[in-house]
Amino acid sequence: MSLADNTCVPCRGGVPPLEPGKIQDLLGQLETGWTLNAQGHIEKTYTFDNFADALAFTNRVGNVAELEGHHPDIYLAWGKCKVEIWTHKIQGLTESDFYLAAKADRAFHLPAAH
């Protein structure tokens, strides 16, 4: 089963963030490009040939996030979109963050609608 096949579980707080070893293990299960930033969030920048494709991807990720009830920070610019994920309630990472990251990768591979 792929990480993307899991459903995000809403965090109600009170759970500890993932340990560094588990974070590295889950990062290794994602497609290349995901990194752990200085704030302890996972992020990836996707590149596109134009603004329209980057915007379409942004909307696909937004739709997935809304369906999952798990909302990343999404930064849109010409030819690129950065997705930054963490669990706000605990200011750290949970397994659901990695599920959402895998779902973003899956959305990236969908054909762009023109």
**Tally of extended strands?**
4
Secondary-structure element string: HEEHEEH
What share of residues is helical?
A: 25-40%
State the separation between the terminal residues, measured CA to CA.
Answer: 31 Å
Strand order of the largest sheet: 1-2-4-3
Shape: globular
**Rg to the nearest angstrom?**
14 Å
Low-confidence stretches: none
Specify the structural class: alpha+beta
Structure summary:
Helix content is 35%, strand content 17%. It contains 3 helices and 4 strands, in the order αββαββα. Strands 1-2-4-3 form a 4-stranded antiparallel beta sheet, covered by helices on one side.
Describe the overall structure.
The structure is a single chain. The protein is an alpha+beta fold. The protein has helices at residues 20-27, 51-68, 95-108; strands at residues 35-36, 42-47, 73-77, 80-85. It has a four-stranded antiparallel sheet, with helices on one face. Strand 1 and strand 2 form a beta hairpin. The longest helix has 18 residues, at 51-68. The radius of gyration is 14 Å and the shape is globular. The N and C termini lie far apart (31 Å).
